[in-house]
Specification:
single chain, globular, 285 residues, Helicase, Ruva Protein, domain 3, 2 domains, 7 strands
């Protein structure tokens, strides 16, 4: 999925947001925003998926900020919130459908979209959303395909619920390869976050890039060979979040892909044909 013209304001707003996490110097923030705006303008015509361009912009912002992880405190807070919810609800999450829904609700812990805000009461929010259920529900078609799963993770916070789903799959006989970011970008989960949750004791963990490259979504030009091999052998790819959807939705040489996400912006909602705010478990074969 290509970057839409309307996505530029959203992307630049995230640059300003992460800049303010690191500095309160207005002149410095303006300089970073302007440099990122110029890079974005030069990149708009590139025939690449939207996350490739967004990643270039965020990497520039991080270099100018002198920070490798502006969202570190927010990521830790998100994981804490999700763990608190998890302790209260995991006993009632018994089925593949339940755990997919919990993982999709967890995807709302996201600072990547201007149009989306993160709730201050995630416990209450989780219970309300769980009762509402999924807007698009292909879980019955997904579950039989789970012999070998490549699980493309997205944000911190939701990774707590991803871990529950991955563990359920493993206990059901699936082989699960869990892929996280190769370096910090936005509030996406990295190997550090996965290890902190003990995921290495449950599933195989890989990164989506090598050499410390920070990249949103799944850029197949940067895939480590071991992850490329896992994708080739997978019976199902679970792709969490909008960036993974943007990366893979135009690809034609993949196993069946289960897109699990909360739809937080108009272009992705329009691409799927559903309204913003939808909770999605969409299978594309």
């Amino acid at each position: 999925m290509r970057l839409h013209q309307g996505c530029t304001d959203c992307l630049i707003s995230r640059v300003e947001y992460e800049s303010r996490l690191c500095t309160d110097d207005p002149a410095r923030i303006r300089a970073i925003v302007e440099a990122c705006r110029e890079l974005l303008a030069r990149s708009l015509a590139d025939p690449v998926p939207a996350p490739v361009i967004a990643s270039r912009v965020h990497r520039l912002a991080y270099r100018m900020l002198g920070s490798t992880d502006p969202y570190r405190a927010l990521k830790q807070a998100n994981n804490g919130d999700a763990l608190a919810v998890c302790r209260r609800v995991r006993g009632s999450l018994a089925t593949f459908h339940d755990l997919v829904l919990a993982s999709v609700i967890g995807n709302t812990l996201d600072y990547g979209s201007k149009a989306h805000t993160v709730t201050d009461d995630f416990v209450g929010f989780f219970h309300r959303e769980f009762a509402f259920g999924l807007t698009v529900d292909d879980t019955d078609r997904m579950e039989p395909l789970t012999a070998r799963v490549v699980y493309l993770a997205d944000n911190c916070g939701e990774i707590v619920f991803d871990a529950l789903l991955a563990e359920h799959l493993r206990k059901s006989g699936s082989h699960v390869t869990f892929a996280v970011r190769g370096a910090p970008i936005l509030n996406d989960a990295t190997i550090e976050d996965a290890l902190a949750l003990g995921l290495d004791r449950r599933v195989d963990i890989l990164t989506t890039t090598t050499d410390g490259i920070a990249e949103l979504g799944l850029n197949r030009d940067l895939l480590p060979p071991i992850l490329a091999d896992a994708l080739d052998r997978a019976t199902l790819v679970i792709a969490k979040g909008m960036a993974n959807y943007e990366s893979l939705s135009d690809e034609g040489d993949l196993p069946p892909v289960a897109y699990l996400m909360s739809v937080k912006c108009g272009p992705i909602g329009a691409d799927i044909g559903i309204p913003v705010g939808s909770r999605v478990a969409l299978l594309r074969e």
